[in-house]
Each structure stands twice: as structure tokens, then as C-alpha cells.
Amino acid sequence: MVRTVTFVAAFVAATALVSGGALSASAAEGDAQEVYHVVQMGDSYSAGNGAGDYYGDPAAYRSHRSWANLYADWLADQPNLPVQYVSYAHSGAETSDILSTQLPQVSADTDLVMFTIGGNDVGFATIVEDCFLVGYRSADGCRTSVDTAVADLPAVATATRQILDELAAKLSPDAQIVILGYPLLSTDTPYILCDYHVICWGSYEYDAAANVRQLGLQANALQDTVVAQYNAQPGVPQAIHVTDIHDLFAGHEPAPGTSNDYRWVDEFLETETVQDPPGFVAQTDYSYSADKFTFWHPGITGHAQEAQHLAAQLGLLPRALAIQAANAGAPENPAGATPPTAWLAGPYVRTIGDSIEFDARGSAAGGGRITQYEWDFDGDGVFDETTAAPHATAAYSGPAEVDVAVRVTQTDGQSATTTTEVHISSDGDSTPEELDNCPAIYNYSQTDLDGDGTGDDCDDSPGHPTGDAASLYFHGPDGVLQRVGVDPADVNVVPADSEGTSVTLGAGTLTAGQTVTVTASGFVPGDTADVWIASDPIVLETSTISDAGTLTATVQVPADIEPGAHRIYVTAPATVASAPVTITAGGADSGSTGQLAASGGQAPIWPMAVGLLAVCAGLALAWIGRVRRVRRR
Q1: Rounded CA gap, 411 and 366, in Å?
Q2: Quick check: bond before 277 cis, omega within 30?
Q3: What angle do CA 588, 592, 586 make, to 5 degrees?
């Protein structure tokens, strides 16, 4: 049954809660039921960025759909195991934030601590931007970001060990720690960025997909080492490193330069991705979002898959099994029992009319068993429903800010009460309408990239770049060179000639359609070289470098080339050189655009078709070839 709550009086003042409700009584040892205490720390991959159903601090992105929350839900479904879960995870957190802010909040009676950490220490957001996001990505930027991250890994390992050691000093030796690995940030398909449209090799290209994946695997292996070294100490809470998350997500990562139909990770302009059923048949759905803090984060299905993986691989850990056995063997109606412990999950932020399933499974008897749960949905002090199970469902017909209460009663009649905060609004977020920068739609975090007062999720131009750098190209999964820059690079912005190379032209000014002799020197003998004219890149000749390291070719400038400043390049697998040329308008019979034979090399090979340089039409914010359904909220 779903109870609809209608408010006709003033709302009850809200109580600020982090996650679970405040306890009005604590259970004593002996005949009292024991509680399994679960704490989540960590960064955005723990908080739940991109999964929706957020609560609490908008900057934290804590989600009821996070993997640890869902795993705690599974634990609470097991018999004789009251579970109390709390999250201190925060979007953007680094190891220093865990040490200074999150870890001090972990109580000594915590049985299980779970977290992801390290991504922000090595510049996760910068890597995503420099390697994958339209308008930010570049070969040089991606390489620099990844190289910087690799250099930072040892410091992250040291800080992670410090987190483990400080937890060990605080927790009981029979507690446990789970560090969840990260999924990789790209599918295992070619994605090679090129900083110049006529050159896509050597230092001017970068295999972003391969190198970012390798960084992820290297970081995962390092965490494995840290955990193994920590566990080698006697008398410490054992840590478990879940190392195979990248295997779990294999084939479900983002596909840069296009889109992965089977992704479990939110791509560009997405949030709350859902694949039903998970696998490689159903196409992934998503909700639109311009909030950059959700890009490249697991969505709804991603977090659910991680939780299911933990349930299957970890199951009930030793401390949970011990608590379960103790509770099962406790007497059902002991004399002299203490009062029960009341607990209520939350807080909740929902839209008018949405159902909320309230959860009091973390409540525990001070002796005997919990026999009933009484629910006050509107905070008026009158209990609206009584259940034998620790769940009740309600929906709200209007805006509300209320403390929902549950009173639990145990076998001997003793009871305890606690509350959790509920916020109901027309758009489903917690910002008051008069302050909301998108008052008509859900945008929990209120991000406003361009600072114009309109939130990103309802802004027609939120401030993300609308196109790539002029010179950017990339090789996509099909191996085809894709042109994504809005226009060719400025002729004055060119890569430097390789050391010891040169290109000379028979003339510095040519008429469109005219032939010219191109002479190159300093190249590697035997290499295949292309002669290009740019800025609209066209291969004029392909030839072989002579034994002397030279090339001489007579080529014809296309008759339809635009007059103006251009460059003629000679490019080989390890060397490049170029020279400027000015093209003037030609006459009506200035010649064909075909290729002439080259001297100084073997017979020419027909050039690469210009059609391979496919222009990304329309708004470059939309990925190339992206075909998918949009799931409406």
C-alpha cells in the first residue's frame, strides 16, 4: 500500500542529517541484538555522481543508488542482520580529504568501511577533459595529463597506505575494509588523437584510449600492492581490494569519439544511464544532463552491477556472519532487556507524487525481537500506520519539508523512536524555487558553468565548447581519420621541422593548377613519404625516400584550391618538414587536379581520398555517429 500524505498545516522544521536517522537509545551487550555498522568513504565513484537520487549536500552528490548503499541494502535483506549504513563520500575527494574530513567521522564500532580513492589525486577530471571531451581534447594535452598521473601514482599509494593505517588504529581488528577498483575510462578500441591535420604519427599523435586504459590498470595494480603490504601486518582489520571491476565493465565503458550502445558509464551530456537487461543486447538509455560532474561516472546500471558483484564475490564477510549468528541465538524474550535501538534510513529528496519506501531495517532489539513499527509520515506526532515489517511506503501530494518518524517496539513492550528528513518539491531537488537556477527541472547540484544564472541542465548554451580545436583529428574505432576541427589550422601554426630536415620549392608563389618541384632532404632512406598541401589537407604525391635521404617530386597544385597562404609538407613515419607557398587564382584552363609522376623514387601510389577526412557536421557537442534513445525523467 502507498499512503498519500497531504499537508494542510505548517511544515515541521527539518533536522539536518547526514544519512541514517539519529538514535534515541543504544542497545546493551548480552541479550541485545547486535548491529552491523557500514560506512562509505571516498570520491565521486563512491558518492554516486551520475546515478541520481541524491540527498544531503548538493556538492557531495551522495546517492541512494551508490554501489555501497545498494550492497548495504543487500546485507540488510539477510536474516538476523540489522544494518546501519552511512556515507561520508564526497564528489572530488582526494586522499587528503579522506584523512582530514571523512575518516575522523568513522566511529570505532564500525564493522565495514568501503571506498574508492585516488582518481582525483592523479587528475581524473583533467584526463577526461584533455583526452575525451569535445573542445578540450588534444594529443599533447592528453599525453601530458596521463604522464602527470603516472608520476603521481607513488604519492597516491603512500596516502592510501596512510588511510589504511589510520583506519587500523581506530577500528577493531575484526572489522574489514573494502577498496573498490575503478572501471577503465575507455573501450578497448583505437582512439588516436592528432594535433595537426596533416600529421598523425610520432609526437603529434597519441593513442588516448590505450594509454588511459594502461594508466587505470597500472593504478589498480599499485593499489593491489598497497593492500597486500598492509595486510601483511599482524592484528589489523583485513582489507579487500576488489581488483576486477575493470573486467566487470569490459565492453561497457565509454566509447570516445562515438558512443557505446552498451555503456554502464555516463558519457558526454548524460546522467543516470540504464541498460535493461545488462549485457550486449539492450541499448543503454540515459537522461540528458550538461552537469560536467556526472560525465564519465557509472550510472544507475553501473552502480547496481558493482553492488551485485560484491554480493556475489564477498557475500557476508566474517564479522557480518558472526553478528548474524549471535542474533539468531539470542533469547526471544529475556528478562531485564534494555530498550531497542531505532534507526531509519534517509534523508530523501523527491518529486511531488513520487513514492518513498522508508526503511527501518537497521533497528535492533535491546532484548527479544522488534515486533512492530509505527510510522508518522507528516511529522505531526500522530502515527499514521503500523507494520510488522521494517518498511512502509508513502507519497506526498504537495511540497513538504518534514521529519518522518518511526517508533519501534520490542517483545517486552519497550520502544524507541527516530526520524529522518524528507524534502518534497515540484522538480525533485532540494533548492527552494526562488533560488533554483532551473526551477522547472531536476538539477540537484545547481551547476552553472558559464555563470549566467541559468543552470546547466536548462541552459541552451551552458558554456561547454561547441567545437574542437581547428587542427584536431582522430582515428576512430574504424581506423578512419576523422576531421573534427571547425576549420583547418592557421597556416602559421605548424609543427616544427624534424631536426636536420628541409623542404625547398621550385617557386614560392604558384598559380592554382600549376606544377612545382618539391625537394626534401634529411629523411630516413627507404621510408614512404607523402607530399601534402594545406591548409585544406590534400595528398599530392606518395613516394619513397632515396638512399641519400632525399625526395624530389614534381606535383600539381589542385586547380580548385583556394588562393592564399598554404604550406607544402613532406611527411614520413618519423620525420616532417614543410615550406610556405602562396597560391594565386588560376585561369579557366589552368590544368587538372590529378597527380604527376615523381622523380627520385618509385612509382607513385594514389593518394588518400579526401573523403576520409570526414567533417563533423552540426554541433560538435554531439558525438560522431551517436544513435541512442533518451530516457525522459
Answers
A1: 10
A2: yes
A3: 35
Q: Which of 125-129, 201-205, 529-533 ranks highest by mean pLDDT?
A: 125-129
Per-residue pLDDT reduced to its tens digit, 308-334: 999 999 999 999 999 999 999 999 889
What ranges do the domains of the chain cover? 1-27+333-429, 34-258+300-329+623-633, 486-615
Residues 6+ apart with CB under 8 A from 411: 332, 333, 337, 365, 367, 368, 369, 371
Neighbour-count burial for 531-544, b at 16+ CB within 10 Å, e otherwise: bbbbbebbbbbbbb
CB 523 within 8 A of CB 572: yes
Higher pLDDT, 248 or 589: 248
CATH 3.50.50.60 is held by the domain 486-615:
no
Which has the closest alpha carbon to 290: 621, 631, 627, 626?
621
What pTM was estimated for this model as a whole? Answer: 0.81
Q: Which residue has the higher pLDDT, 563 or 473?
A: 563
523 has a pLDDT exceeding 50: yes
Strand 36-40 and strand 112-115: the pairing is: parallel
What single-letter amino acid sits at 89? A
> ∠322-324-328 over CA atoms, to 5°?
120
Tell me: domain 1-27+333-429, CATH 2.60.40.10, correct?
yes
198: left (phi over 0), alpha (psi -120 to 50) or beta: alpha
**Which amino acid is it at 21?**
G
CATH architecture assignment, domain 34-258+300-329+623-633: 3-Layer(aba) Sandwich (3.40)
CA dihedral 491, 493, 497, 502 (to 10 degrees): 20
Question: Fold match between 34-258+300-329+623-633 and 486-615?
Answer: no
CA pair distance 271, 290, nearest whole angstrom: 9
C-alpha torsion sign, points 191, 195, 197, 199: negative
Least-confidence region, from 15-29, 74-88, 261-275, 596-610:
596-610
